[in-house]
Amino acid sequence: MYKKMLLAPVMAIACVLTLVLAGCGGASAEDLIRENIESYMGEIDGANEEFVAGLEASAGEDLELLGLSADEFAAAYLDGYGYEIGDITVDGETATAEITITIKSYSDIMTTFQNDFYEWAYSVDASSVTQDDIYQQAGQMLLDATNNAEPVSTTVEVGYTQNSDGDWEMDSSSQTELSSVVLA
User: What is the model's pLDDT at position 3?
Assistant: First the structure.
């Protein structure tokens, strides 16, 4: 009877110790890198205030001139945005991670917009439209080109280096490459 009474508390303590000891090892390098990527890539979100603020700072006046808001353009541009983290390979103090980014091509959007706008501009009688009409038409065409663009997937390999504190940092060249994919 005493064995049964002691067995339950001993098993409970063993379970608690197992859980505590399992957590002592800390996160693996792969998990830390995955968290870093998720943090970095999560910043590129249509609802993210920082992304919209950056868009407003760089092109806000131009968008307003076209009758668009930064929120409206960001929502259209980032519709269909996503990313997937593939293999993460750690080799000592360096690592590589494969990321597939799906986003609309800014270059394709601008090409479509320019072609559509020039076609429209050459088809209208210049004396029949005002400057405000032209800006409004251009804004609508830019928004249409953005809404109609199909997201494209691009896979990149990013590099990481473990610093002296043991933290994993994305290489600056990889940050540049990710930025160029998002704005390609």
Answer: 43
From first CA to last CA, the distance across the chain in angstroms is 73
In order, the DSSP letters of 51-99 are: HHHHHHHHHHHHHHHTT--HHHHHHHHTTT-EEEEEEEEEETTEEEEEE
> Is-contact 7 13, C-beta < 8 A?
no
Sign of CA dihedral 134, 137, 141, 143: positive
Counting Cα atoms < 13 Å in the Cβ hemisphere of 42 gives 6
Q: How far is CA 159 from CA 42, 44, 47, 164, in A?
A: 18, 19, 28, 17
- 182 token code pair: 């998002």
pLDDT attached to residue 174: 87
**Which stretches in the chain have pLDDT values below 70?**
1-25, 43-48
Model-level pTM greater than 0.85? no
